[in-house]
Design goal:
alpha/beta; 3-stranded parallel β-sheet; 9 helices
Length: 253
């Protein structure tokens, strides 16, 4: 009886210990990404729809389009680029609650490559706090404005443990490219090989409506699964920083 009791106690202890230790495979998947520029998925058969510069007036409808298709996207939100993020609180919360990945695109959308370390850190911390206030999470992923990664930027991102995403297909919407011209870029890039992480902006109606709908169909035609940036890197559980974070009650920028 005493022996059986000891075995039972040991079994419970081992189970508790197993729960407390992170999965080494998951740790390995995340370990190589901090402060390193990633421009493409780590596996084939996927497409990571990623949108910059929101939240904006189209955010909610974009979430609806993705939800209706049963796919998940990544929203690289800023704090103040197109008005204060708190003025679009409902849209940010909707994107997160719908299972889309919410990520950082800095507070003011500056040229990070020419900024000092303290300025870069402040840009990231301000938008971090906004996310904590709105969804209770700090993002693990970020995309630098203008895709600039020079200067002290990557050093600070490594220190802050951020996964840095750029792109391998530029939709060109920011450069007055029409949705049809953007579609040609994806066709030229093709569906083979590791999945694409495109540069797109939710601030252009053509991207939100025409291009997104076309990409959903293009992915289906080519047997691609549309996923978040974290999922396309086999990091589905690593989209947000670990820990519990306290909001500060801020509701304005």
């Amino acid at each position: 009886m005493l022996f059986e009791s000891a075995i039972t106690t040991l079994a419970f202890a081992l189970c508790a210990s197993a729960r407390a230790v992170p999965n080494p495979i998951e740790v390995f998947k995340r370990a190589h990404t901090s402060g390193t520029v990633i421009n493409k998925c780590s596996k084939p058969g996927v497409l990571a729809l990623a949108y910059d510069d929101g939240p904006y007036q189209y955010t909610s409808s974009l979430v609806d389009t993705l939800d209706k298709a049963g796919v998940k996207g990544t929203f690289f939100f800023t704090g103040t680029l197109y008005g204060c993020i708190y003025n679009q609180a409902a849209a940010v919360k909707k994107a997160y609650a719908s299972g889309h990945q919410v990520a950082s695109h800095t507070w003011t959308h500056p040229h990070m490559g020419s900024m000092g370390a303290a300025q870069i850190q402040s840009e990231m911390e301000k938008v971090e706090q906004a996310f904590v206030n709105l969804i209770g999470k700090k993002p693990q992923y970020m995309r630098p404005p203008y895709l600039e990664t020079g200067g002290q930027f990557l050093t600070v991102m490594k220190q802050m443990n951020y996964t840095v995403i750029t792109d391998d297909v530029d939709a060109g919407d920011w450069n007055n490219q029409s949705p049809q011209q953007s579609e040609q870029k994806f066709q030229q890039a093709g569906a083979a090989g590791n999945g694409h992480i495109p540069l797109m902006h939710e601030t252009y109606q053509g991207t939100v409506t025409t291009l997104t709908s076309w990409l959903i169909q293009w992915a289906q035609t080519n047997n691609l699964k549309i996923v978040t940036a974290a999922e396309c890197l086999d990091d589905a559980n690593g989209a947000y920083k670990e820990g519990t974070f306290q909001g500060n009650g801020q509701t304005t920028c």
